[in-house]
Structures are given as structure tokens and as C-alpha cells.
Design brief:
- The complex is a heterodimer of chains A (about 230) and B (about 240).
- Chain A is mainly alpha-helical.
- Chain A has one domain (about 5-225).
- Chain A is built from seven helices and no strands.
- The longest helix of chain A has about 60 residues, at about 170-225.
- By secondary structure, chain B is an alpha+beta fold.
- Chain B has four helices and four strands; from the N terminus they run αααββαββ.
- Chain B has a four-stranded antiparallel beta sheet, covered by helices on one side.
- The termini of chain B are far apart.
- The chains are: A mainly alpha (about 230), B alpha+beta (about 240).
- The interface between A and B is large, with 43 and 35 residues.
């Protein structure tokens, strides 16, 4: 039996199940491709940004060139930390008893730390966006497919009962057609689960990199700015 | 202040488009694959051996004594066997009379025995005649002039058996009680030159299985008798094939 005939010959419920699974598959593949390029770009630009960061000693120079690494989450962290630091320094500079550095006792570095943590959270949210759909597809698609199969087999057996013939030639096609729903469910679920796990791993690596960068950034701030 | 607007996700639309194209390509590939790759089912070749001649429409046609050139006289009309008749009444019944004269009784007995003898001989003659006709009739079966092919071998039954066997291998359906009424036209070389679906319940899968059965049967059928063009109708149902 041809696929085109199968899709036109099935019942409404099985057709609906197949349509739903195909939509799931299309959307999850769209997310997989999008996330793959997004995370890949984030990794590449993070590496380049870190090289640039360690080579360049001045924050203002880095901030001016940060747009070159817009896809890197580390750039976002740096921008946020630098922005907070600048505001603090401006605020400290405006005070009459200004001693020439950031007052750590009043939580100046802690402010930067909070800003970095908030930026990390936002970046993690950005990186994890849409991946929940992959998890949903991976966990529910087999069950939706199974529902289609059960329904298809039920309809097939009702038909067999009415026909009165129980030969393999009569029973097999209905069951085979019903099983296609499970197969489509698995086809939608397997790549989604694999991609979800892969992206989760990559995002965890990026989170660790962001944490490391935050620590490094705070150390630099404390060494060079707050210690003045 | 950090803002999310710095990271506009423009790639999602392109990814969605790519995903749709990818799925369409996979679907097209699967359809192409089904058409290109031959069926990998195990090959089961059925060898047909027609041990006897196919039945003829009129088995009594022809005569074993005929060579095919002589004139055949018209057969005699069958004479009906003599009907049993009640003997004509000869006056009063002797059984009725209480006292019958001896001379009359003897004469009656003689005439009765004569009558019985006559009836017996007539019965024997009728039975003998019937036996002769029966023997004569038996000798006509399947003889030279009755070729069977003239009146038409049962090619439909032959075709039916082939279609039935082929249909058993290809039958598939999805609706409850599908049926397809097909009219086949077979040329003198035994090729199906036309397959017309006259009626159908609309089950596409079932129609496809019927088409496959006809294609499969075509590989094993022989030309029609006298290499004439044959046309016949068959009804395909899940229960089997029926001659129309």
C-alpha cells in the first residue's frame, strides 16, 4: 500500500493523530535547527570574545567592540556588569566624600554580582527557550501515536467482526496501518529527545562558562576598581 | 541595564520553513522509494497444471462414429411409452356375480391371460427401446464433432480460478464491506488489454489490491479459446471473487 493511499484511506481519528504528530515533528525540527545554530554560534562567539577579553585590558575598549560578539552570552554578561559598574562609579564620583573607588562595604561589588547573576539568568532563559517543546514532543508523541494505533486496531477489529473473515490477509492490513501511528509518534519523539538532551548539555556548559566569566569579572572589578 | 531586545531571534522563521521543506522532502522520498524499490516479499510461484480439459458447454455434442463429413440424419422424435389402459369392460364383472357358469369363467381367464401377455410384451418392448436409446445417447458424448471449443470452453471459470488465487495474495482493504466490479477484456494472446472498474465501494486500498491481483493473474493466464477476444465481468469482495 502506498503512503499516499494510506493517508487518504485511514479513519478520521487516526488521520487527526497523524496530523498532530506531523505538526509536532515539523515544529520540533524547526526548533532543533534554530537551537543548533543558536548554541553553535554562542559557543563560537564566546570563544572569540574570551580571547578578545583577555587580550584587551580595558573595559571601555571591550564594551566598544562587544557588538562583534552579540550572540555570545558572555558578551551580554560583560555588558550588564560593565553597565552596572559604570553606574556605580558615576554614583560614587558624584558623592562629596568620594575616595576614588567603588565602596565595597556598601555593596558596590555585590551590585555588580547581582547584575551578572540576573544577566546569567536571562541568558539561560534565552538559551533554553523553546527546548521545553522538544521535551514535550519527546515525552508525549509516543503516547499520541499509541492512541492512534489502539484506535486503528479497534476499528480494524470491528470491521473484521462485521466482515466475518479472520484470515491473515484481512487482519494484517488494518493492524499494519494502525501501527504506522506509533511509528510516526516515535519518528517525532526520538529526534526531539536526542536534541533536547544535546541542547541541555550544551546549555549547562555555557552556564558554567558564564559562571566562570562572572567570577573572573568580579575579581577584576575588585582588584582593579574597588581596590583603588 | 540588560535588555532582551538585543537578541532578536530572527532565525526561527527560517528554521520553520526549512523544517517544512525537510518533511516534504522526506515524504516525497518515501513515496519515491516505494515506487522504485521492488517488493521484497518472498516470491511464491504458483504452477498451474490443467490435468483435464476444461468443461464444455454442451458435452453431448458430436458422435463417436462420425468422421465429421457425413450427413447426420435428424434424430427420431422420442415415442412416448404406451400408456397403461384399463381393459374394456366386457359386460358385467365376473367377480360381481355370485354364480358364474364354468364356460364363461374359462373364456374370461383365457382372454385375461392374453391381455396380460400383450401388456407384458408391450412393457418389454418399451423398456428395450428406452435402453437402446440410452445406449445410443451415451455413445455421443465428447466425440469428434463436439469439440467443446465451438460451444466455448468455460474460460470464465478458468480466469476466475486465476483471479481468485491472485486476489488471495493481494487483498487489502480499509472500509467495512468493500467491493469492486471489474470488466476485463483479454485479447487473443492472453493479455489483459482493458480493465474497467464498473462499480466500486470507493475503498482505494481495496481497488489497488484488485488491480494488483489482475496484474498478478495476467502473468499466468492462457489465451482464450480460439484466440478470440474475451470479455467478462468479475466482482471482487473480501470473501473472494465472484463471476458476473
Amino acid at each position: 500500500m502506498g503512503l499516499e493511499l494510506f493517508f487518504t484511506g485511514t479513519g478520521l481519528v487516526v488521520k487527526g493523530v497523524l496530523l498532530l504528530l506531523i505538526i509536532f515533528s515539523v515544529v520540533s525540527w524547526a526548533i532543533i535547527m534554530f537551537k543548533f545554530f543558536q548554541i553553535q554560534k554562542a559557543f563560537t562567539e564566546s570563544g572569540r570574545f574570551m580571547d578578545f577579553f583577555w587580550k584587551t585590558k580595558r573595559f571601555d575598549t571591550i564594551a566598544a567592540q562587544a557588538d562583534r560578539f552579540a550572540s555570545s552570552p558572555l558578551t551580554a554578561l560583560f555588558n550588564e556588569g560593565y553597565s552596572e559598574l559604570k553606574q556605580l562609579m558615576e554614583a560614587e564620583g558624584a558623592k562629596p566624600d568620594h575616595g576614588g573607588g567603588v565602596n565595597t562595604d556598601l555593596g558596590g561589588v555585590a551590585n555588580v554580582s547581582r547584575a551578572l547573576r540576573r544577566a546569567t539568568n536571562l541568558e539561560v532563559n534565552r538559551l533554553e527557550k523553546y527546548t521545553t517543546f522538544l521535551a514535550t514532543t519527546g515525552s508525549t508523541s509516543p503516547f499520541i501515536g499509541l492512541f492512534g494505533t489502539v484506535w486503528g486496531i479497534m476499528v480494524a477489529f470491528i470491521g473484521i467482526g462485521k466482515t466475518g473473515s479472520a484470515s491473515l490477509a484481512v487482519v494484517a492490513p488494518g493492524i499494519a496501518e494502525a501501527l504506522i501511528a506509533t511509528a510516526v509518534g516515535l519518528v517525532a519523539a526520538i529526534p526531539a529527545v536526542m536534541a533536547y538532551n544535546h541542547f541541555q548539555h550544551k546549555i549547562r556548559v555555557l552556564i558554567k562558562e558564564m559562571d566562570s566569566f562572572s567570577t573572573e569579572f568580579l575579581n577584576i572589578v575588585q582588584r582593579n576598581v574597588a581596590g583603588k | 541595564m540588560y535588555q532582551l531586545v538585543h537578541h532578536k531571534e530572527t532565525g526561527l522563521g527560517i528554521s520553520a520553513l526549512l523544517s517544512v521543506v525537510f518533511h516534504a522532502a522526506v515524504f516525497a522520498f518515501l513515496i519515491w522509494w516505494q515506487q522504485m524499490v521492488p517488493n521484497l516479499d518472498p516470491v511464491e510461484i504458483t504452477y498451474y497444471v490443467d490435468v483435464v480439459n476444461l468443461p464444455v458447454t454442451d458435452p453431448r455434442s458430436g458422435n463417436p462414429t462420425q468422421t465429421g463429413n457425413e450427413d447426420v440424419p435428424a434424430p427420431q422424435p422420442e415415442t412416448p411409452p404406451p400408456a397403461m389402459t384399463v381393459p374394456a369392460a366386457t359386460g358385467k364383472s365376473p367377480l360381481v356375480k355370485k354364480s358364474v357358469p364354468l364356460e364363461d369363467s374359462k373364456a374370461f381367464q383365457e382372454s385375461l391371460s392374453k391381455l396380460e401377455g400383450k401388456v407384458d410384451s408391450q412393457r418389454q418392448a418399451a423398456a428395450f427401446e428406452a435402453l437402446k436409446k440410452k445406449v445410443a445417447a451415451k455413445g455421443k458424448v465428447g466425440m469428434p464433432r463436439g469439440t467443446g471449443g465451438e460451444s466455448g470452453s468455460d474460460y470464465t471459470a478458468y480466469l476466475h480460478s486465476r483471479l481468485k488465487d491472485a486476489f488471495g495474495k493481494t487483498i487489502k482493504y480499509q472500509s467495512k464491506n468493500p467491493f469492486v466490479m471489474v470488466r476485463l477484456t483479454i485479447d487473443g494472446d492472453g493479455r489483459i488489454i482493458r480493465t474497467r472498474f464498473e462499480k466500486s465501494s470507493g475503498d482505494g486500498v481495496f481497488e489497488l489490491s484488485v488491480t494488483r491481483a489482475i496484474t498478478l493473474a495476467e502473468q499466468s493466464i492462457v489465451p482464450p479459446p480460439g484466440r478470440s477476444v474475451y470479455e467478462g465481468g468479475f466482482v471482487f469482495k473480501p470473501q473472494g471473487v465472484i463471476q458476473r
